[in-house]
Amino acid sequence: MTTSTRILLGVNIDHVATLRQARGTRYPDPVKAALDAEEAGADGITVHLREDRRHIQERDVLLLKDVLQTRMNFEMGVTEEMMQFAERIRPAHICLVPETRQELTTEGGLDVAGQEARIKAAVERLSKIGSEVSLFIDADERQIEASRRVGAPAIELHTGRYADAETPTEVAEELKRVADGVAFGLAQGLIVNAVFVGFKSAVSEMKALILAAAAKA
Questions:
Q1: Which residue among the candidates 39, 75, 145, 174 is catalytic per the annotation?
Q2: How many CB atoms lie within 10 A of CB 110?
Q3: Whole-model pTM?
Q4: Where are the domains of the chain?
Q5: What is the mean pLDDT of residues 155-168?
Q6: How many CB atoms lie within 10 A of CB 187?
Q7: What are phi and psi of 70, to 5 degrees?
């Protein structure tokens, strides 16, 4: 999550809900996790309401809509059901993502280039409710250019291939691919989000806080 002047921290609470659903209980509560994250300084909360409802539920999102003090980033598939739900809650940010019921987590980026008319219509419709719409895509120039053409102001780059890289060569290649994608997206006039944008500075700040706390102990 970025602005033109600074990096913002968005916290994804989906897998707090995954634990709750696996236990079949009402805890751990993702809404409480979101409020704790805000109290700790998070600039926004990300939730993904999947078609199969495997973690976050409608009730969670509706509660978050009423209690969040920061901004919600609502991840959703491009379906009529989700479009109508988004129009109901009017989140500050919406990220359109691909979905399949078989996947354990989102395994790749949205194919914007292969369905430009459909994505363009979704971006236009969701922009009318005042949400900033981003597209979750691979760090591929063809997809980045298509994202600009459909009118999305922002993109989020999928970093799964980097995370799965096993050899130093593969790691270097995938990191370069993400970095090149960030640079190309910025050159297209897009806001670019990715897990590793600002990652080094975030780790440095966390380490400094740990050392400061240890010194006071």
A1: 75
A2: 26
A3: 0.84
A4: 10-216
A5: 86
A6: 9
A7: -105, -130
Q: What is the rounded distance in angstroms from the CA atom of residue 125 to the CA atom of residue 173?
A: 37
| Residue 29 annotated in ligand binding | no
Token readout for 178 is 């993400």
Quickly list DSSP for 26-77. S-S-HHHHHHHHHHTT-SEEEEE--TT-SS--HHHHHHHHHH-SSEEEEEE-
Place of tokens 């980026």: 109
23 in a known ligand binding site: yes
Residues in the chain: 217
User: Is there a binding annotation on residue 14?
Assistant: yes
Q: Note the CATH architecture for domain 10-216.
A: Alpha-Beta Barrel (3.20)
11 and 46 Cβ atoms separated by less than 8 Å: yes
pLDDT of res. 150: 98
Q: What is the mean pLDDT of residues 58-73?
A: 97
- Name the catalytic one among 38, 39, 48, 51: 48
Q: Is 164 annotated as a binding residue?
A: no
The reply to whether 48 belongs to the active site is yes
The sheet with strand 132-137 has its strands ordered as 10-12, 44-48, 71-76, 93-96, 132-137, 154-157, 191-193
Q: Does 50 carry a binding-site annotation?
A: yes
Q: Is 34 exposed, middle or buried (0-12, 13-18, 19+ CB in 10 A)?
A: buried
Angle of helix 14-23 relative to helix 30-39, nearest 10 degrees, comes to 150
